[in-house]
Amino acid sequence: MSFDLSVFSNKNIILAVTGGIAAYKSAILVRRLKDYGFNVRVVMTKGAQAFITPLTFQALSGNPVHSELLDPEAEAGMGHIELARWADLVLVAPASCDTLAKFAAGLADDLLSTLYLATKAPVWVAPAMNQQMWAAKPTQRNLNTLVEDGVHVIMPEAGSQACGDVGLGRMPEPEDLAEQVREYFHKAQRAIAEKFGLLAGKKVTITAGPTREAIDPVRYISNHSTGKMGFALAAACYSAGAKVTLIAGPVSLDTPNGVERKNVSSAMQMLDLSMQQLYDGCDIFIATAAVADYRVAEVSEHKIKKAGDELAVSLVKNPDIVATIAQQKQRPFMVGFAAETRNVEEYAAGKLVAKKLDMIACNDVSRADIGFASDQNAMTVFFADRYEMEKRDLEKASKQEIAQQLVEAIHDALEQQQPVV
Ligand code: C5P
């Protein structure tokens, strides 16, 4: 089977496993969902833990398993409400009779039933049970209620059952369930893109502006970046239908309409928030920030007093934010910027490879008419080898128009994205 591994890397699935012999199939289901690139977190009921251990799911999903409501430790990490918000889809497989009854009645006496009430995400249930229990009137009544409440019921299959009976009640094979989930997100993405724009439904993170590296409480090292390009891009991505988070260094610009802005000062803070964005879900990461390459090794607690004719400040290298994000396993589509004063294209293409980016936009800041503080820009965009497009020249235009062209370039590359190997 061939598929694009990266397409679903931003989609979060809660797989809820309840008590039933089919729980063993859910282990394979986690594998298949991960193969498709989904982020998977597993919630287990007490009943499920009698059939299979949380450790199995933890190892397969790469995430801690959630089973307790109001467990202080779990709530400190990702509590039940956060979990409910995190999910793009809640898939209950296998769904026991008891769970269906709880959902239908609106009970909230364990983690899963509470999560069901607290989530806005679509909920799918794959009932699996003895054929007689499936046919029982209360079960059918509960299923009807769930369908009326908007729950998607994946019908069980007929066949021989673990208890020896033959009839309806077997959970579909994990491959089929994973395929149905994949198909659902594919259709949803296509529908959104057709309706709302080039980056519809995408989560975009943009770093912008300079960083400030403190020397002491009143002084810092910084640069002349104004953040204009990053802010223009944030506006363009939002207009193209994306959900945009702008991680901004100290700049005096208004936050574009619809954009979530997070202010930072230093490079280390910018890195922290960027990593957080990955965790929250990010499809496209655009690094326009002029991050200070070095920070002061030891920031003085008090204002440094004038003494002597010379003062030496020792600097240490800052982490490369965009390269750090690009190294992550579930990485977004990575866009870098390069401002150069000579050998512009050669240096930019080198950075594209060295930082493992998908795309880099470079400009010549030695030209007085474009670049840092200017409202105009002209750029050449290079793409990684795995794209059919090699480079694209963006003619001198306002930063807003350049931003729009960059959005088109990102969209075109995403359309033909190959998995990163
Ligand atoms: O290596 P250079 O600073 O020229 O690379 C520029 C690109 O790398 C920009 O996209 C910039 O935002 C990003 N960068 C970064 N973290 C650093 C330095 C640069 O994300 N510490």
From TrEMBL:
Domain Flavoprotein: 11-183
Location of the active site: C163
GO molecular function, one term: phosphopantothenate--cysteine ligase activity
Residues given in the record as CTP binding sites: D293, K303, P319, D320, I321, V322, F337, K351, K355
Heme listed as a keyword: no
Annotated pathway: Cofactor biosynthesis; coenzyme A biosynthesis; CoA from (R)-pantothenate: step 2/5; Cofactor biosynthesis; coenzyme A biosynthesis; CoA from (R)-pantothenate: step 3/5
Cofactor binding description: Binds 1 FMN per subunit.
Cofactor needs: Mg(2+); FMN
Keywords from the named record: Decarboxylase, Flavoprotein, FMN, Ligase, Lyase, Magnesium, Metal-binding, Multifunctional enzyme
GO BP, sorted A to Z: coenzyme A biosynthetic process; pantothenate catabolic process
Region entry Phosphopantothenate--cysteine ligase, spans: 204-421
Boundaries of every DNA/pantothenate metabolism flavoprotein C-terminal domain copy: 199-412
NCBIfam families per UniProt: coaBC_dfp
Protein name from the UniProt record: Coenzyme A biosynthesis bifunctional protein CoaBC
Organism: Acinetobacter lanii
Gene label: coaBC
